[in-house]
Amino acid sequence: MNEKNESLILGESIDLEGLERQALEFEDQAAKLVHKANAIRQIIDGFEALNGSASEVLMRSFGAHKAPFEIRPLASDGPRGPKAALAVMREQPDRVWKVVDVKREMLRRGWAPTPKAVEASIKRLKETGALVSSGYGFYKVAASVEAADSHEDAEAA
Predict the structure, then answer these.
(1) Domain ranges for the chain
(2) What is the pTM of this model?
(3) How many C-beta atoms surround the C-beta of residue 75 within 10 A?
């Protein structure tokens, strides 16, 4: 059937060249999307090949202190900022913490992006009274914070 006959059957004029251009555009878009899908599949395959050990493979080292320590990529589900520092320090509430030890633990867990971020969190906690200084670079969880935690634990029980 020729183009004129098709037009007569459908009762209107059809722009076959326009439809052909549109089909080519859609095919081009589809090819680009297939390329993106393949790239995402490669990422998935790489992650699965790590078998759950991605954070260990991606861990980097920070060596500005005497003993270098490892920095895990940021955990998506972990606490951040002052809450994270306080969470670490509350695990041993009677301990006098050296700032570098809090840094080491928070970075190892992926709870802070940089050592400076940990220092800023500790500074904020000191300013709010949640931490008390026990000498230059040493801090302890304030007794009032621990008492509040004990009260909350008792209410939850």
Answers:
(1) 3-49, 59-156
(2) 0.53
(3) 14
